[in-house]
Amino acid sequence: xxxxxxxxxxxxxxxxxxxxxxxxxxxxxxxxxxxxxxxxxxxxxxxxxxxxxxxxxxxxxxxxxxxxxxxxxxxxxxxxxxxxxxxxxxxxxxxxxxxxxxxxxxxxxxxxxxxxxxxxxxxxxxxxxxxxxxxxxxxxxxxxxxxxxxxxxxxxxxxxxxxxxxxxxxxxxxxxxxxxxxxxxxxxxxxxxxxxxxxxxxxxxxxxxxxxxxxxxxxxxxxxxxxxxxxxxxxxxxxxxxxxxxxxxxxxxxxxxxxxxxxxxxxxx
Length: 269
Ligand code: NAP
Description:
By secondary structure, this protein is α/β, with parallel strands linked by helices. The protein is built from ten helices and twelve strands. It has helices spanning 16-27, 43-52, 76-81, 100-111, 128-139, 151-160, 171-179, 221-228, 236-252, 258-267, and strands at 2-7, 31-36, 57-60, 73-74, 86-88, 96-98, 120-124, 143-147, 165-167, 183-186, 209-212, 232-234. Helix 4 packs across helix 9. It is globular, with a radius of gyration of 18 Å. It starts with a strand and ends with a helix. Residues 101, 104, 125-130, 148-150, 153, 169, 187-190, 192, 198, 213-215, 236, 239-240, 243 line the site of NADP nicotinamide-adenine-dinucleotide phosphate.
C-alpha cells in the first residue's frame, strides 16, 4: 500500500483526496491519499516523520508552502517561485520539492487550445498563485505583464521574472495591457467570496483566453464577463486538476487518468 497525502492547516475542505483516490481506483493501484494537519512549529518534524514512515509523496498547502522549501531539495522552478506544493519521497536521497501550480496553469491553458509560447500574457495578482503562474508562463515563452493591487509587489515580482513588467490594478492600466494581450490569468482571490472581478468587463475582448485560478465558485464573474465577449474561458478547477495530475505522474511514473480525476473533482464543486 502506497501512502500519499496533503500537509496543510486546515485541510478539511480539500478536493485533493477524492481526486487522487479516483486515480488509484481507476488504475487499480494499492494506494491511499490522506490529510495531515501539523502545527506550524512541527513542519520539519512532520516531513522527517513522513520520510521515516515511507510515505511516497505529499502535497503541501497553506500555510506551509514556503516553510517546506527549507526542509527538502527544491528544484529550480520551486526555488524561483519560493514555494513547494509537492514533495517526492520516491527517489534516492533527500526528498525533493516541486511546484506543480505553474505547470497546472500551463496544462489547463493548453488543454483548451491556448498557445503559450510567444503569447502576450497578463497575470493579475502577485501572491503565491501569481508567482507560480508568472514564472510558468515566462518559462514557457510568454511575455508576462503582472498587475497587482499592491503595485510594488508586482514590480518586485517582475524584477525576478525574465522579460516581465509590473503594474498597479488601475482600470486604465489594465485596459491598455489587455488591448493586445492573448492570455489573462486571474491569480487573485477576487471572485471567491463576492460576485466581483479584478478586471473591468470592458477591458476584455474576444481574442483573449482567460484562466481564473479561483475555483469556488467555478463560474466567476470574470469568466462570465469573458464568455460574454466571446473569449476562451478556463475555470480554476482545470488548474487544480492539472497540478494534481502533475503530482500523481511524478510520484507514480504512470500517466494519470485525467478524466476520472476531473470527474471526481467536479462532482464535489
Ligand atoms: P495570496 O498569496 O494570499 O495572494 C492573494 C492575491 O490576491 C494578492 O495578489 C492580493 O493582492 C490579491 N487580492 C486579494 N484581495 C484583493 C482585492 N480585494 N482586490 C485586488 N486584489 C486582491 O493567495 P494565493 O495563494 O496566491 O491564491 C490566490 C487565489 O488563487 C485564491 O483564490 C486561491 O484559491 C487560488 N489558487 C488556485 C489554484 C488552483 O489550482 N486553481 C492554486 C493556487 C491558488 P495584494 O498583494 O495587493 O494583497
